[in-house]
Amino acid sequence: MEGSRQRVRNVIAGRKPDRIPLFELIRNDAVIEYFTGKKLTPENGQELVYETFPKAVDATRPALKTPNHPGEEILPDGRRRVVQRWTIWTEHVKYPSGEVYRDAEMAQPIEREWTGEDDAGIQRHLEHHRDIQRHLGDDFFLFYGGPSVGFMGTFGEIGLEQYCYFAADYPEIVDHRLERNTVRAVQWIEHLPADHGIEAVFMGDDIAFKGGPMFSPAWFARHYIPRMKRIVEAYHRRGIKVNFHSDGNLMPIMDGLADAGIDLLNPIETAAGMDIAELHRRYPHLIFTGGIDVSNLLPFGTPQQVRDATVKAIEDSEGQIMVGSSTELQYAVPLENFLAMRQTVLDYQL
Fold first, then answer.
1. Cα–Cα separations (whole angstroms), residue 138 to 5, 71, 142, 180, 298
2. pLDDT tens digits, one per residue of 144-166
3. Backbone angles phi, psi at 71, to 5 degrees
4. What are the start-end ranges of the E strands in 128-175?
5. pTM
6. Structural domain count, the chain
7. Domain range enclosing 281
């Protein structure tokens, strides 16, 4: 849409935009087919996905996906991978014991020298995002992906249940891996070239359930927040804003996240207890991205209910929001509900 990049830049910088921006990750056949006028298939998926975003919204995060042919395969290590139209599920890595996992983790050094291959990896990363940006057009705002503390990646590899047992029996594993992730992230940021071109990163790390943080607030205050702060400060030193993402109810640890210096917060899962008005009152500097419930409201509500929720999100945040779903516009959301959210934003007078 015309003016998208400047619109998002204005919001991030604390300036009043011409209108509220739309931020969305679209994985929805009906929406893509509406904006392209073509039937979506795995074969034309990339073309139509790239065509849809600049027509439908102002900004997105870098996890653009195209539809798959459903299927199943066995990986070389014996794990099963299930491919569905919009998602891929892979079995977790299984360790025979906590001792084996501990030894494998502790054998990897926290610090290591930066190499030429690491520089080449950064260049590949930047070129990947630049290629996406070229397809989306110069007027669209793309949040680059960037490294984080990596809590989600840690438990995502072996599954949360197995991870909790291992973390309880061998707590040194947690600090070792999270510290290794943090040191590596800061190294990566510090080695970005001067012409990196990144205005803002989308730093994803799911750390909460609907009922609250996955571990206690005291645990996050000790093990997670200080490391996150080091990474955010490294981004800021390079002139990069941070859009932090975590599903779930973050309210019990929001003071720590705000203290870590994040600039934007996503996806504001209101169905989990994230209250936009309260968040804005407590952290008036934060910009929100998302905020419209995609668990129940967008897939099952009426267009009028969606319109009402959209206006409320804008007014509760006093306009400091890029409106979108509370994670991604998944395939179950009816077209009319997305259009109701979108048109409400386009019509809203700041």
1. 8, 36, 10, 36, 30
2. 999 999 999 888 889 999 989 98
3. 180, -170
4. 141-142, 144-145
5. 0.96
6. 1
7. 4-347
